[in-house]
Amino acid sequence: MAEIIIGLVVLLVGAKLLGELAERIGLPSVIGYIFAGVIAGPMFLGISTADDVSAFAQLGIILMLFVTGFEQGNIEELLHNIKAIASVSWIGYFVPYGAAMAVALGFGFTMNQALLLGMIMAATDSGITLKSINSVGKLGTRAGKTMLGVTVMDGTTGLIIFTAIMTYLSVGHLDFFELGSVVVSIIIFLLVFLLIQRFIPMLIDSIEHLTVEQAEFSFAFIFMILVAWLAEVFGMHGIIGAFLAGAVLARSPIAGTNFIEKISSISYAIFVPLFFVWTGLLLNLSSLELVSFVVVGAVLIANALAAYFSGKLNHFSKDDCLLMSISMLPRGDINLILVSIATTMVGASGSLIVTPKIGNLMFSTTMLIVLLGAIITAILLKIFIKKEGT
Fold first, then answer.
1. What CATH number is attached to the domain comprising 204?
2. Considering only CA atoms, which of 311, 319, 312 is closest in space to residue 386?
């Protein structure tokens, strides 16, 4: 236990110091956090591993999306903008998917391996995306609201595509019953969530009569964790549940208390930095080849162009289109989860779809896009801010 505590202290101190250094040279603090993990991880000092902070990191991303949902998650407004949200989400998913597949096939990957690589590369990291937009004060704009909706839409789209590809590769054909089950699961989750929402005012009324300290804070935290867990139970990412939990509490009587300031403070002081440190700890680029750089470059360019032109299709301003194209670049934990699944996937023939060599290459390529996505996003956002200020 003592070693774990000391390790966390070292990582947090390193993250804050490098975060401060990043800020002083004009980059967002998250870049410093990531490099703190890189330096402490297996590529350099080797004093810590991703497993040491995994639980804290996952809690960090859930807290980040909960706070975002509370502050910006107007569900009615998101539904009003559903056409733009759907087009940005779907175009921004399938265009980079196709780019990754095309490069993979050009470098000799099999079709099944290219399908898996496309799935891994196409998924964007909602938490980093929203933090990027929030860092330039644009989360309340039309573009920011659209990207909030894209967060939810990407989660459901990615789950359906993931199920389709996995069933196709494992049994040799599309299983429409399995796909239907996924869609039904998503609908059931939303219905259960709406049912729970009806009881929130009654629960809050009971909590307001409690004299125990920090009752509202405890209730909000427990509610966030339960809804995130419920989303996971129905096959969705927990961050979608956390986002919806925050959006619901923002429109409840508890919103008048100061609990969200307390949750936000502890999140951005400890858990959110550890999420980015965890990303850096995972980095291992030992198996990189030329195809890795070509895939990453093609996917990021395709992502940016897809987001920009889908914004144009929905009559966004040029600046909003630029912001959306930049904010679609980050990758993170969802990509790492997907590559872990893909590299252990057994096909219809009973053998691994991805050979160990290709598996290591896919993992290193995923690490590369996570790192470059974060750095490029930070640099482009800095340029974007300066451009707006002129």
1. 1.20.1530.20
2. 319
